[in-house]
């Protein structure tokens, strides 16, 4: 057998015995270099499918619409490569138009540098968007592998060549439409992500989580650096919609100076806005921002721009040499750059800061102090005081039956004190969200309804206890049932999981009224101390949010 024939036979053998005999789910990373599917047959010679684009030129960061069309096919694989070196790795990144039929893959350690099918469902047309990288070559060509059936496929179907401006193209682009992508965008493309090396030294930075790396896919980052009479601003975060920050005189949304970076048609638009109460931002018709740059990659939206410290001609723009609370928010944006309300609470600094003053590296909180206090008080009431009160009433009647406090049995006085404390803490906690929101919140889901129910049950329980019949009265049994049902219902609504195991331990120790007295007191002491330790740790964690 001649050497070429031997090589072909070896290639066929490898394909037949590859661990994956075809890729109906489109996970074709093994074919990143060759773009050849291991289907045990040779590729077809004359392509039936074509690749088209909507532009002939590009700049780094530009978006080009890519179409693959032709007779019905099951699978596909699309890449962009250096037109002068087609054996080089895939470059740039893609964005999907329809996640139902296409998916992004990582080739040559470049994330989203290839597109493939999600299933072998029949299709006739695929549309994706290719984002030119910052280090793109002068000319780029699109290539596609198309699988019509398992053993009928075409490899590296040549697509059109797109070029950077002033690049000499040896051949005209293939199947290029007459409508070109505009390359006169007034902003530039960031070739690499931001870094935090200068935070606290020459930059004023806000990071969440604290000290996170802005290259991380979970890091929200905002920095300010004074340069003469202007401030250079960088903003980054895991968002495909928009990022925004605002300068405010208080920790309430409204009457604030806002700046947004909005993803729109696979680009990022930086705009200024004014926040009026809790209404959507009012976008400015005149943009006061200069030197705008942006980057969309690896799930991160990053943008930078420059703003003068003083802008007397622009109404609503705050001077940057004063102190403000700083908000940082993110959310979704629909087609055309229309922004929607942020899904999570904005990050808010814990104090007012002058971004042109001493450089600092700080964090913030997504939970305002009133909301923190609301959660902490409810936790104290329904995990600590009410639990101890129930245990005392249920298990310590025989232990403290002959001990009195202010003329009543000690167990009853302790139980009543703890339960009144629960009602008081719940009442205070109940009003805090209304103070923070300025009324009822329509976006809080079922939580406020459960809160109102718990509050009503707690007050009803306290009022009912005030009319408790004497021990031998005929209605005492009825009172006991109502008292138990109301308290249990309130606890179930207020606490998702009741600490059942610890109650079971104590429940097994009620065989004799006078037995186990010392052990029960030790267990109660451990229970109370454990709750206090856990409570302190939990409140410390709340303070870090």
Structural features, described:
With 545 residues, this protein is an alpha+beta fold. Helices cover 26% and strands 30% of the residues. The chain has 7 helices and 27 strands. It has a 7-stranded mixed beta sheet with strand order 10-18-19-13-12-11-25, with no helix packed on it. Strands 14, 15, 16, 17, 20, 23 and 24 form a 7-stranded antiparallel beta sheet that branches. The protein is elongated.
Largest sheet report:
7 strands, mixed
Strand content: 25-35%
User: With helices defined by DSSP (H or I, 4 residues minimum), what is the helix count?
Assistant: 7
Low-pLDDT ranges = 6-21, 169-186, 496-515
**Rounded Rg:** 33 Å
List keywords for this structure.
545 residues; alpha+beta; seven-stranded mixed β-sheet; seven-stranded antiparallel β-sheet; 27 strands
In short:
The protein has 545 residues and is of the alpha+beta class. It contains seven helices and 27 strands.
Outline the secondary-structure elements.
Elements: H1 3-16, E1 50-53, E2 63-73, E3 75-82, E4 93-96, E5 102-107, E6 110-117, E7 123-131, E8 139-149, E9 152-163, E10 188-189, E11 204-208, E12 220-227, E13 230-237, E14 242-248, E15 256-264, E16 267-275, E17 282-283, E18 290-297, E19 300-308, E20 323-331, E21 333-334, E22 338-339, E23 347-348, E24 353-354, E25 361-362, H2 369-395, E26 404-405, E27 408-409, H3 410-437, H4 447-466, H5 476-494, H6 500-507, H7 517-544
